[in-house]
């Protein structure tokens, strides 16, 4: 945790982290996309996270990343980045 960092944006880092895959898939609405990019502009950590996720997706590209369910991708994402427990899947189909 870092004290003194500028916060107070509408989107928190946690939310941004969860939106990264949607962002890269172009699944965000224009409004969320703007919010996402605005956060990235002021948050180095989330920028790094985005780059790492992009690199991971590229690495998975040869496996056909399009065929990977979002839930699985997020889990891989969490494992790859060592960012802790993935969010609990909602709904559960
Ligand atoms: Zn952030």
Automatic annotation (TrEMBL):
<protein>
    <submittedName>
        <fullName>Transmembrane anti-sigma factor</fullName>
    </submittedName>
</protein>
<dbReference type="InterPro" id="IPR041916">
    <property type="entry name" value="Anti_sigma_zinc_sf"/>
</dbReference>
<feature type="domain" description="Putative zinc-finger">
    <location>
        <begin position="13"/>
        <end position="46"/>
    </location>
</feature>
<keyword id="KW-0805">Transcription regulation</keyword>
<keyword id="KW-0472">Membrane</keyword>
<dbReference type="InterPro" id="IPR027383">
    <property type="entry name" value="Znf_put"/>
</dbReference>
<keyword id="KW-0812">Transmembrane</keyword>
<dbReference type="Pfam" id="PF13490">
    <property type="entry name" value="zf-HC2"/>
</dbReference>
<keyword id="KW-0804">Transcription</keyword>
């Amino acid at each position: 945790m870092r004290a003194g960092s500028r916060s107070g944006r509408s989107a928190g880092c946690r939310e941004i982290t969860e939106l990264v895959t949607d962002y890269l898939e172009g699944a965000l609405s224009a409004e969320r996309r703007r919010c996402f990019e605005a956060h990235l502009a002021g948050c180095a950590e989330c920028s790094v996270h985005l780059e790492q996720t992009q690199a991971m997706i590229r690495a998975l590209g040869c496996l056909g990343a399009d065929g990977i369910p979002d839930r699985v991708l997020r889990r891989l994402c969490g494992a790859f980045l060592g960012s802790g427990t993935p969010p609990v899947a909602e709904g559960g189909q």
